[in-house]
Amino acid sequence: MRKPLCLLGLISILMTSCESDSVSDQFDDANGNTAKKLIERVEFNPAQIEEEDQVFTVNYDANDKVTSATSGVGSVVLVHDDNELSTITGDGDPFSLSELYQDPYEAFETGEVLEYDTSGNPISVSVLEDYYEYNQTTGQYEEITEEYIATITYDATPNPYFYTFEAAGLIEVLDKVQLNFSMMPQSPEIVQARALFPLNNIKSITYKDEDGEIVGELKVDYVYDADNYPTSATMTVIDDEGSESVYAITYNYKE
């Protein structure tokens, strides 16, 4: 029941916040004449011994088009025809921003934007979480929906995945969303990805419940190169019980 309402809300947001600019235009406006770097490998090394290392790997053809990508939970193969993305096959979603930022509440997968900053980054996002709770009166489990509000901050540096996503053909797909406001988009997921796409590098996400209590946090401290691309980072994820998970991240770019 939420999908039609969610879709209408996202279309409304897009029409008011970015009807004149594509993702590419907004990225250029937010970051200026930034260097173009393509990610080959990002390693996530958890400090927790019970967690395994995770690696995001991207492969390119001779024209610097992404041919495949893998992560800890899935891999895909991309086919380009006439320099445009034509098909994607495989399992999982290695290009999931929530996965790449180790975001436990998946704001960049399921959220709805409430507010943007002046650069066009989503800074306030509503995330709905469904869970089941046992009702002792009825003796049955009932589905409960709880809303969390994610507040997101950014470094004044480019989203390091932007040009990799562009080489995969994904940015071109998002750019076309703003050309089709007169008709219902074919994919609500694409409209949602368009609305949620960050232009700068995410620095922190703080989740609050309906009572305003903090239920989760994500914090990242980066080391940047001369082009303002991260070479390493320390990411800390704090859950609703206050437990911390720490990850050492290294970034490798295509020569």
Question: So how many helices?
Answer: 7
Q: Please list the strands of the largest sheet in the order they lie side by side.
A: 5-4-3-2-1-12-11-10-9-8-7-6
Could you say which structural class the secondary elements and strand pairing correspond to? alpha+beta
Give helix and strand order, one letter per element, not per position: HHEEEEEHHEEEHHHEEEE
Average pLDDT reading: 84
General shape:
globular
Give an overview of the whole structure.
This protein has 255 residues and is α+β, with helices and mostly antiparallel strands. 21% of the residues lie in helices and 44% in strands. The protein is built from seven helices and twelve strands. It has helices at residues 2-17, 23-31, 97-100, 107-110, 162-167, 170-175, 188-196, and strands at residues 39-46, 54-60, 66-70, 75-81, 84-91, 112-116, 122-135, 140-158, 200-208, 214-224, 230-238, 244-253. The protein has a twelve-stranded antiparallel beta sheet with strand order 5-4-3-2-1-12-11-10-9-8-7-6. Helix 1 (2-17) packs across helix 7 (188-196). The longest helix has 16 residues, at 2-17. The N and C termini lie far apart (48 Å). The model is unreliable at 1-20 and 179-186 (pLDDT under 50).
